[in-house]
Amino acid sequence: MVTTIRQIQGFRRHLLAEIADLTEEELNRIPFGCPNNIAWQLGHVIAAQQMLCYARAGLPVLIPEAFYLPFLTGTRPETVTSAADISELKRLAAATLDQLADDYTQGKFLSYSPSAGILNVYGFPVTHIDDALSYLLYHEGYHAGQVRYLKNLI
After folding, report:
1. Domains of the chain
2. What is the pLDDT of residues 128-143, one digit of tens each?
3. 36 or 123, which is more confident?
4. Where is the DinB-like domain (predicted)?
5. Rounded to 5 degrees, what angle do the CA atoms 85, 150, 67 make?
6. CB–CB of 146/19 below 8 Å?
7. In angstroms, how far is the first alpha carbon of the chain from the final one?
8. Cβ–Cβ contacts within 10 Å for residue 21, how many?
9. Does 47 have pLDDT greater than 80?
10. Cβ-based neighbour number of residue 65 at 10 Å
11. Is 20 helix (H, G, I), strand (E, B) or coil?
12. For the chain, where are the alpha helices, taking DSSP H only?
């Protein structure tokens, strides 16, 4: 699974490169007919990884609540994400996966609660950390595609 974490890190690097040249306004723009923006997409991949890997394992999430709750599944951007918060999201995008790799190697995810939500929506059972990492690989790719789509609209 360390290979899967490296692949997820590759998607994150791609995502960060894709948005590197965008302004704060562009990252916050919600194109007509779309439910969210690129800043939300970035926050969401971080929050989803924290939920699936840490919260489901009974561990505290590693990010402040302000970078977690507003980006969980079912949320939408309710405020403009500031330039400072965008910088922090970019930092967290890399740092949280580096920490995940360390924590996985140290065996911190032995206790895990199955995620019925993913099973109900996608039919993919997520019953332990290795399932979560496999799902996250798909999830990161999906949201990288969403970012590219939104970028083309702005």
Report:
1. 2-153 (1.20.120.450)
2. 899 999 999 999 999 9
3. 36
4. 10-147
5. 25
6. no
7. 36
8. 8
9. yes
10. 8
11. coil
12. 2-19, 24-28, 38-49, 83-105, 116-122, 129-153
